[in-house]
Amino acid sequence: MHPPKLPSPPVETGSQETTDVTTESPPRWATKSQAAEHVHVHPDTIDQWVKLGLITAYRCGPKLIRYDLNQIDAMLTPASGEVN
After folding, report:
1. Rounded Cα distance, 31 and 49, in Å
2. How confident is the model at residue 79 (pLDDT cuts 50, 70, 90)?
3. Between vectors from CA 45 to CA 41 and to CA 48, what angle results, nearest 5°?
4. pLDDT higher than 70, residue 23
5. Assign residue 53 a region: left if phi > 0, alpha if psi is -120 to 50, beta otherwise?
6. 3-state SS track over the chain
7. What's the rounded mean pLDDT across residues 73-83?
8. Residues 4, 13: Cα–Cα separation, whole Å
9. How high is the pLDDT of residue 13?
10. What b-and-e string marks burial along 41-62, b requiring 16 or more CB atoms within 10 Å of the CB?
11. Cα distance between residue 55 and residue 13, in whole Å
């Protein structure tokens, strides 16, 4: 049995525009825990980003949700000024 085919991430989410990650590379699917670990945040932060429309959660079953690490990477911006 093959894993379900997930949709490609959208080009624009919420009020922030992101680069078209679909032309650069295929999606890099991750669980919520893996996505949080990828950017060193708490898994609740991933939920908040979804609620704010910064990233998209992809449901491919009644309980199976995945996140595209490319979309998360594209959402992050460099810090400007002094960082403590």
Report:
1. 14
2. confident
3. 160
4. no
5. left
6. CCCCCCCCCCCEECCEECCCHHHHCCCCEECHHHHHHHCCCCHHHHHHHHHCCCCCCEECCCCCEEEEHHHHHHHCCCCCCCCC
7. 79
8. 23
9. 46
10. eeeeebeebbeeebbbebeeee
11. 6
